[in-house]
Structures are given as C-alpha cells and as structure tokens.
Amino acid sequence: MDSSATRHHNQPSPRGPLRTAWSLFGPYRRPFAFALGLRLLISFAAAVPVVTLVWVIELIRTDGLTGGRVLAAVLTVIAGVAAQYGFSYVSYRIAWTSTFRAVGRMRERTLEHVQRLPIGTVRDIGSGDVSTTLTSDMDAVSGYVHHGLPQTLGALALPGFILVGLLTVDPPLAAAVAVSVLVATPLYIWTTRSFGTTALERANLLATANGRITEYIQGLAVIRALDRNAQRLERFRAAVEDVRRINNALATRLVPRTFLAMGVVQLGTPLTIAAAGYWYAGGRIDAGTVLVFLVLVLRVYTPLLEVAGGAEQARLADAALRRIDSLHALAPQVTPEHPGEDPGEPSVRCVDVSFGYQEDTPVLREVSFDVPPRTMTAVVGPSGSGKSTLLALLARFYDVDAGSVQVGGVDVRDLTEEQLFGMFTIVFQDPYLFQGTVRDNIAFGRPEATREMVENAARRAQAHAFIQELPHGYETVVGEGGATLSGGERQRISIARAIVKDAPVILLDEATAALDPLNERAVQEAFAELVRNRTVLVVAHRLNTIRHADQILVLDGGRVVERGTHAELLETAGRYAGLWDERQRAARWRVGQGQD
Amino acid sequence: MTTDTDAGAEPVPGQARTPVDDEAAPDPEPAARGSGAFAVLLSFTREEAGRYVLATVLATLGTLCQLGPFFVIYLAIRDLVAGEATLSSMLTQAGAALLFLLAYYALSAVSTLVSHRAAFRTLARLRTRIGQRLTRVPMGRVTGSRSGTIQRTLTDEVERLEGFLAHAVPEATGAVVAVLATTVWMFLIDWRLALAAVACLAASLWLSGRAVHSSQQLMGGYLAAMARMNGSVVEMVRGMPIVRTFNRTGDTFTETRDAIRAAAEYQADWGLRLLPAFTASFTLAASPALTVVPVGLLLWTTDSIALADLLFFFVLGLGYGAQVTTLVRFSAQASELGHAARVVRELKAAEELPEGDAPADPGDGSVEFVDVSFRYPGATRAALHGVSFRADPGTVTALVGPSGAGKSTVAQLVCRFFDVDSGAVRVGGSDVRALPFAELMERVSFVLQETFLFDDSIDANLRLARPEAGTDEVEAACRAAQAHDFITALPEGYATRIGEHGARLSGGQRQRLSIARALLKDAQIIVLDEATAFIDPENEVATQAAIDELVRGRTVIMIAHRLSTVVGADQILVIDDGQVTERGRHAELLGRDGRYAQMWQAFESAEQIALGRAVHDGTVAGASAGSGE
C-alpha cells in the first residue's frame, strides 16, 4: 500500500459504546438483567445476619433473650447465610454463563462485521489492532461484565439497603450517617476525573519516553556498531528517569486525593457516635436506637470503598468497548444482495478513476485504461505514485471516489463479493500461508480439488520438488508454528494456490526484494505458468519481466503520464525510457567497478 | 479492618492472558507459578529495601489503626448495654475513632507514597540495568524480531510489575499482621468463640483452595480453547485478503465461529464447575456470624461468657477474615505477574560477552575464519560447520548460496553478534574475542538491508559515526554517498529531522545515509548484508555508486543474491547448508560446472523470463527486446 492513512477510523458510532454492547448482547440481555437483579437480593440476604445481631444485642440489653428467641436468632442467621449462598449461586451462574455466551456472540458479530468492511479498511487499521479488539478487548469487557459490574452493584446495594433501614428507625441520625457519603461523592467524582486527565497527560508523556526507550533498543545494532554506547545509554537513562519522574509526579498528586475521598466517607463513624451520644444524652432517642446505628454504621462505609476498586476495571472495559464500538462504526462495503449480471469476457477497465485515502490528498487522479482479455498490462512508476493503490481499487479493496472500475464490462460495485473474486486472483508481495498442511493451503481456493489438481498446480508453480522434500510432503504443516519455508518457497506455494483457483484475471504485485538465484528463477517460472492465457495486471519493479507486456502504464503523482508498449515507450524517450536505461546500467554494475 | 459483607476475592475466568502472538504462550506449569513468581518479585525490591521497609512499617501501623474504630464501637456498645453510656463517654469515643481514622489515613497515604516512589525507582533501576547490559550481550539477542520482544519487556512488562511492587509488599504485610493480631486478640479474650470464628474462615479458605484446584485442573483445557479461538480469530483477520479473494469467507468464518462458541461454552462450563465451591467460599468468608452467633448465644445462655466478651465478638469478630481476601488477591496478582517477572529477570541476567584487552598491534584489514562452527542458541542444527576462509586486505569476498544456508551468519560472526562454538574469527589478525568491542567496531562497518535512523536530525544521525567530524567531512561523505543533493533539497538541509516526527525518506535514500555514515566511520572492513537486494529502479544506480565509494580500498565481505554484482569479486564463497562448498573467482567457478554454475545459469534465465510473452503463448524465456544481455 502506498499510504496507510485512513479517513474513517477511531470514530465512535452514533449510538455510543454502551448501547452498541447492549445490542450485541442479543438474547442474553434478559438473563443478564435478571442476574443483576438477583445481585440485589444477595445484598439483602447479607443484611439479614447483621440485623439479627442488632436484634440480639437489643434483647440482651433489655433482658428479653429467651430460649425461643435464641433459637429464632440462630435460625435467622443460618437462613440469611443460606439465602446469600443460594442467591449468589443462581445469580453468578446466570451472570457468568450469559456473559460468556454474550461476549462470544459479540465476538462473532464483530468478526462478521469486519468481514463486510472493505478489505482495504481492515488492512489500514492493521490486522494486529483488529485482532486485539476481537481477543483482548473482548476479554476486558467480559471481565468487567461478569465480575466487576456485579461487584460494584453489590458494593452499592448493601449500604443502600442499610441506609434505607436506618432512615425508618431514626431519620435525623440516618442523616448524620449519610452526610459523609454526600460530602465524599463529589470529592470522589473529582478524584476520578483528575485520574482521567492526569492519566491522559501521563500516557502522552510516557509515550514520548517509551518511544525513546524503544528507539534505543531498535537502534542498538547501530549504536554498538558505531561504538556510541556511552552517549546513547545516557539518553536512554534520561528517558528512564523521565518515566520515573512522570510516575512520581502522578503519585504525589493522586495519592492524597484518593485517600481524602475515602477518608471523608469514614468520618461518618465518629460523627455518628457523637451525634448518637448527643441525642441519647438529651433523651430524644433510646439506647436501642443507638445500638442499631453503632452496629450498622460500619456496614455502610466499608463496602463503598470497594467501588473505587471496580472503577479501574471499568475504565479498562470502557476503553475496550470504545474500540469495539469504533469498529462497528465503520461503514460496511455495499454489495448487491442478489447476484446481478455476470461479468462477461475477462477484461478490466478503469474510467476516470480518482481516489484518496484522505479527503483532500488524492492518490490517483482520473486514471483511465483498458486491459483487454488475455493481455498483460504493467504498471510502473516511482514509489508513492499510486501503483499499489490502483491494484487495490481493481479488487475493490476500496471504493473509488469518482469514476468507475469495471471487470468484464460490469462495475465492481454491482457484483457480489463471490462474483467479483470469481474473476480475480491476487498474488501479494508477502504471501500469507494459513496454519495447515501444504495441501490445504494449495487447495484453499477450491476445497474440492483432487490430489492430482493440487500436485499438478504445485508442479507448474515449481513447488512440487521442494514440497516432496518436506518431512511429511504435502501433509507438512506450514503457516504460524509450522515448518520453516524460505520466502521463495512460500511465494511458490501461494502461486500454486492461485493456479488451483484458476480465475481469469490475475493481479500481481511483484516483490521488490531479490531472492537467491535458484528461488528467483523458480518464482519467475511459476509466475509465467500462472499468467498463461490470463488477463494480467502487474505492478512491476523488474522491468525485464514486463518488456513483452501489451501495454505499460507509467504512473507519476497519481496520473498516467505515459502508456504504450516497451518499444513505443523507448522510442518516445520519456520517463519509461529513463527508468529502463537506469535499470540496464544497474544490471551491469559490478561491486567496486562501477556500472560500465 | 474492612468488613465487606459479600464481595470476596473471586477468581475471574476470561481474564487469563490471551496469547495473540506466540511469544506470549501460556505458562506450561500454572501450578508452579505462584510462589516462584513471588520470590522473583521480591528479589527486585532488595535494592530499595529501606524504602520498602519504611512503607511496610507505616502500612502495618495503619492497618492496626484501622482496627481502632471497631474497638471504639465495641466499647460504646458495651457501655450502652451496661447502661453506662454518657454524653462525655460517647464524645470521647467519637474523638478516639476520629484519631484512629486520621492516623490510619495519614499512615496509609504516606506508606503508599513511599512505596510508589520505591516501586518507580525499582522500575527505573531494572530498566537501566537491562539497557546497560544490552550493550554487552551477544548482538544477535537484540536484533531482528527479538528487538520487539526486548522492547516490550523494557516498557510494558516492567510497567506491569508496578502495581505489585507499589501495593502488595506493604499492604500484604499489613494484612498478615492485622489477621495475626486479631486472631491472637480473640484467643486472649475467649478461645471458644475465637475457634468458632477461625473455623468459619478456615472452611472458607479450604473451599477456596478446592475451587482454585478444580479451576487449575480445567486450566489446560481452558487455555487450549482460548488459544484455539484466538489463533483462529487472528488467522482469519490476518489472512482476510486471501480468505475473501479466494471466496472462502463462509467456511473460514464457520470454523472461527465454532472456535468462538467452543471457547464460550468452555468458559461457561468452567464457571459452572467452579461456582459451588467458590460461592460457598466467599459466602462463608463474609459470614463469620454463621458460627459466632450460635456459639456465642449458646455460651451466653449457659452463663459461661461475660457480656463484654460476647459483644466484642459480635462487633469485632464479624469483620474477621476480610483481610484474608486481601492476601488471596495479592497472591493471585503475583502469579499473574509470573510471566512478566521471569522475562524481566531473564533479561536482567542475560549472559554478557566477555571483552578482550587492547590488542598489541593495530592489525590490517584482513578477515579470517578458521574452522568455524556455530549453532544458534536453542537451535537443533548447526548454522555453520567447519567454515574456513581468508579475506585479504582490500579484496572483495562474496557470499552466495540459497537462503538459510548460513551467509548472514558468517556476516554476523565477523561483527561478533554471537561467539563461535569452535574455531575462531579473526579480524586484522586478532581473534574477535580478544578485542575490546570498541576496537572491533573501529575496524568493521556493517551496512544492512534495512537502515535504522534515529528520530533526530540528519546531521546528528551521520555524526553518530564520528562526533568530532567537521561539517566539510560530513558533507564530503554525503557527496560520496550520493546523498548530498537530496539532503540539501530537504526543507532544512542537514538539520532536517528524520524518523517518526520528521521527513519521510525513501528506502534508497535511507540506504545512502547509512553508507555515508559508514564512510564517515572509515573502517577498514565493510560487511554488506544484502545491501543491494531491493529492486528500486529510481535509486538503484545512485545506491550502487555510493557502495562503490564505500568499498574503495577496503576489505569487503558481501552477501549477494544478484550474481552479476559479484562477477568481479576477488573470491566467491558458495555457502550451502552451513559449509563452504565451492570457492574461487567467477570464471573458475563457472568452469567447474558445480553449484555456482547452476546458480549463475538460474540467475541469467530468471532475468530473461518475460511474463508478457507467457500470457500469450506460455513461453517462459523470451528473446530479449533491447536488453543489453
């Protein structure tokens, strides 16, 4: 790709991350909501033993603890704990299973959506980022939803229940309990916000410092080769020191604030004791009421401190959700629902095609050309001239901004993906092999291919001989974690794959790096087999390979500046003739002896 | 003491590290992780021991103060039940609670600050150590794809340790002290009720152990299901251009969807197997009342406990156990960090190459391999065996052969990226192991296919080679390297920044800058590792001219794929399967009709293949149209 710039990435969807996630939950929304509801009952059950205890203490104080009441108290405590267990089990059971399945569904739906995006968009975002969103980001959401969210809910519910209970006992004293929470809440929100902004500042500063650390590692070979260890190590150390200072500054700023908000909440305890003492001594409330408040006040504040713990997990999940949402915000490629007219003869045509990755920087401007059936067109030009972009547009990796790309006389936008790629085979510079056997990789485009077809294709792609020498021949596992193949061998397997697919139009992006001579020849011969009797468009670097092309297009600055056959272009003595001349000089070069 | 009633330390399925790349493969021995990781993590704290000890003492005192309000409330309730509560007694108690709280928060805040500072210092120290060590480890360890791993270790993995170092050390110690203190206190007051409280907690811990155990039994299958799903998703996304253009979207998606569903079902199944014990564990941890209330009331109705003691357990004993969840949380955190801790330690202790003393004589420009054998660390097969050759000063030695045969290994050994297993590499007559690094680097320049430039000005990048070089020298080098013209055409000439934040240069231009750098350095020996492999019609001629300047009068070891470039070499070594199989000049080797002759023939015919002709009649090698060959 000439440019990796994108024009629509990292935008939130109109409905926002939360609603996107909720809609992706699909049929699991109800059970999940039910589990959250049950979560409230857990807290309710948890309050039972505590309230029982208050009752027991009050009975002791008033000498009312009879044998029957002891039994009742013991049974109530046991029942409360049992209910807590039962509700927990059912709630977690439903929450976990529905979350795991819902996140699985979210993965599926997101992957499905990614599949409908233009291939170019996926490449621009980067397969690494897309994969991370589909794996780790989903896990972060799962972690928060099945664990952090219920926990936060529980941490809020128990104090809530107790506060409501206290309100019914004595509103003024309950107000004394609540006042610290009310004061601390804005403090907590302020702390969280300053966490957010400071973390953002820190992320930026850290990125710079980490960039310098990274540069040191990447440049280590050069640093050591030039013996600049001391000088560069000093810079590295400065970067490490910067990281430390940034972190220190952050801690100095945030630690007191965090403890302040938590501390203010807890100040409710002395306040409640004092207020209770005042009203008790004044005779407004009795000892039983004081007892209730003294036992319960501790149960209000400590769970609230848990909310802060869940906040960190929530932040991570929020960031993950935003990335998931921004993938969903990307517009899918519009393809006809039903196959229309099939493309005719395997010709390719570009009519006034203009395209840019960013709105106002066109990469291709009004490019027009025809590739008649079973002819070859080569595209040459300096790097950045738009060659690879042109190739990507033909295969509809992107949609053109203006003009039209046609294959077999039909606009590519009027073809289903199946019809479109039934016409094309694309051979990329850097062949991707799937984890699987050599045979599966070659038969990828036609799973029903017979053994003969696979081996015949491998022979034509100059791959049969080396495949047979692999430990398990065609059954050898290649791809990630598989047998190690050289670049030339991988390329030949990918050509065999293309031969099996047998599409009438071949798009070829010639590799820029030379291979060792034996591999180089084998790959060139494989290409020659692949293109036989096909319609071919090749982005070429080795001018030798295209000198018999039916048409050569010279691209510069996104425009076709010259076109014609090799002989015609040499005649006009323009850009192409210049490139050809350079190439011939370069081919005559002997190291240390110049080019002549 | 925190008395969270219903939230325990819950294991979190779905939070296991997801290996997106193969380097982050799951730990094969999950059971052995916890304690080992803990020891490694603790070993990092040693050099900041003073700060960590201070933070721990403060945190412990803080945790004890945290018990204060509970004790105060106990006193207030006792007074109240005895009918002795007065305004002044309660105000005193409120004041005491306030003081305890203030002390707790002050001590904790200071402890947290101190421990964070200590943690940041530890991280900086680890990074600096590793950075320093990297200048002395075998170069092969830090180049290529490994550099990505090291980089991640230095930035992300080290950073991951922060949370543990800053929090776990002081807070876990505080929690241990608090649990022990409460236990002892309870036993001093009434051993029977203390036993009841401990029994509840012990049952909870036992159940939690069972839950963890059963989860670990399922861990292998769980990780496998997750790895299969992640692998499938990553492959589907990475291979998407192929999947879609080969019209295989449907089948491939079905496969991935099955993997996703299988992983979700496995997770759900895991949850179901875990839940009974796990739910019971955290319910019990939050409910000491289950044992304390019945036993306490039994003792009370049989008149065998004092009222004050009973109330003590009703207030304080019920918060017992919450600190244990802190411990469980930190030990889970420690085992999660096992991977990070280990890679950091490994890198910190990476083996250094011993350095030689200054040589007696300055040496000439010769390079000599004497019966060199070498195997990459961890590889099963030797990369080179019994390689011997001599490159005389001022001559060109070309290494040719199939990829993977060992050409690059030879080039790297000249620069001592690794040490040989047997034999010797001599540069200027001295064994590379006997030379100081500085001296070796003085003698050898290395020009790679990929050029690394720092995010800095062009001038600074060039001067790395020789900081004291004058402006005229820098410019002369750039002229010779065919770089002066494009540099002066840049907006700020030699002061133009390059790299991420600066001008974008083409591959050929970057290549020429690295050649200019090598020219400035002026070493006698030049190693060219496929420096001319890229076919770039615009830049090729200029780059070749730059290389001509660089190699003039110097000893050259070069790896070449395009055989025409080394036709004039003084010596061509054919490397095949780690051995030198043929050697000689171009004409001699052609006459020998061996591997080289075969390669030459392949090279010439590859140059002749014309795809345009193949389209029409399948002819592979067409007659040349105007090519000079």
TrEMBL record, chain A:
Residues 33-316 form the ABC transmembrane type-1 domain. It is found in: Cell membrane. It comes from Lipingzhangella rawalii. The lineage of its organism: Bacteria, Bacillati, Actinomycetota, Actinomycetes, Streptosporangiales. It is a multi-pass membrane protein. Residues 348-582 form the ABC transporter domain. The keyword Transmembrane helix applies. The chain crosses the membrane at residues 32-57, 69-87, 173-190, 259-281. It comes from the Bacteria. This is ABC transporter ATP-binding protein. Pfam families: ABC_membrane, ABC_tran. Keywords: ATP-binding, Membrane, Nucleotide-binding, Transmembrane, Transmembrane helix.
Automatic annotation (TrEMBL), chain B:
It is found in: Cell membrane. This is ABC transporter ATP-binding protein. Residues 53-336 form the ABC transmembrane type-1 domain. PANTHER family: ATP-BINDING CASSETTE SUB-FAMILY B, ATP-BINDING CASSETTE SUB-FAMILY B MEMBER 6. The lineage of its organism: Bacteria, Bacillati, Actinomycetota, Actinomycetes, Streptosporangiales. GO terms for molecular function: ATP binding. SUPFAM superfamilies: ABC transporter transmembrane region (SSF90123), P-loop containing nucleoside triphosphate hydrolases (SSF52540). Gene3D superfamilies: ABC transporter type 1, transmembrane domain (1.20.1560.10), P-loop containing nucleotide triphosphate hydrolases (3.40.50.300). It holds the Pfam family ABC_membrane. The keyword Nucleotide-binding applies. It comes from the Bacteria. Residues 1-32 are annotated as: Disordered. InterPro entries: AAA+_ATPase, ABC1_TM_dom, ABC1_TM_sf, ABC_transporter-like_ATP-bd, ABC_transporter-like_CS, P-loop_NTPase, Type_1_exporter. Keywords: ATP-binding, Membrane, Nucleotide-binding, Transmembrane, Transmembrane helix. The chain crosses the membrane at residues 52-77, 97-120, 193-212, 274-299, 305-322. Residues 367-602 form the ABC transporter domain. SMART domains: AAA. The keyword Cytoplasm does not apply. It is a multi-pass membrane protein.
